[in-house]
Amino acid sequence: MKAEPKKLRVRKNKKIEYCKCACGQLVELGTAYALGHNVVGGVVYCLCGCGSLVKERGHVYLAGHNGKWKTKSVEEINRRTETRKRNREFGKPIRESKICECGECGLMTNPGCRFINGHNGRGNKWPEIRKQKMSELFSGEGNPRYGHPCHPNTLAAAKAQRGENHPCFGKKHTKEQRLANSLRVKKAYADGRLVPNNRNEGIGGVFNGKKFDSTPELSFLLKMIKIMSRFVRADSNQDFRIDYKKVDSGTWHSYFPDYFDPDVNVLYEIKQNGYEDRVEMKKDVDNKKPYAVNHCEKYGWVYELVSSPKLSKKKVVFPMREKYEVQLDNKWECQYWNWIFENPLNF
Question: Is the distance from CB of 315 to CB of 346 less than 8 angstroms?
């Protein structure tokens, strides 16, 4: 036997309808929910009955929805009420919120939706075969810009700004501007917003929580593994920045050494074994060394230049990555997976 809905005392001339949560209680028209019934699983729905989520803490209406029913005509209100009753009688499922299916944000969607707005394309990547087909389709004559050269006026304007006619011809940055630009770039590297493009011998990654930018630095960390936990990356603090003057050009530059040990106040600069035999590298090191020594003496530190062996990428670094002993930067991570696919027995 079906239970009768509870009676609700309402003021005169007030319309009533059933609670939207399908509990069977009667509520005043314009409220849509009985007291506390608009909260489902910790999610608050707008009390006007629109089905939207209320994200503001302590609110029960969306902005502007608390007077929503006052602007509707009586016929419109009656029509919506009858539609809701009819849907409830025929067992039409109530739309509910659920976790966004993008699998990344973990947020709740609006009722009846699978994704939060704009999240339905997350994680979708074209396969390599489709990329190749699209490349072939839009190459050569298939390109929509094929056979449509630049307008003559555009070419003439570009040619007119060459050489001495260029607005920046003959202009140079002042010393203050160069220093400000250098500090801004160094800070971006220290914050991680910029990542240096390592050369082939400069494999970058993380070993036991310490960043390295070359295999000689990695071999140095392996050698000092017992005390490496107290090392600090020199490029993380502007106090470790060393200004030096190039002998050839006479211009001033700056650089950061590699690691600093605060327990013994030693500033390490790592170079690969045999750098003395490379003329340009030895010349650069000899140019920087006196400035580094003077900089360390000013702070009471000790400057130490360390020669460290270079490690093989395929014999040492990639096998370490295979055992999850190191984390590689994006460029070297891609090379690692290419090495795995070329040598499936290694996987």
Answer: no
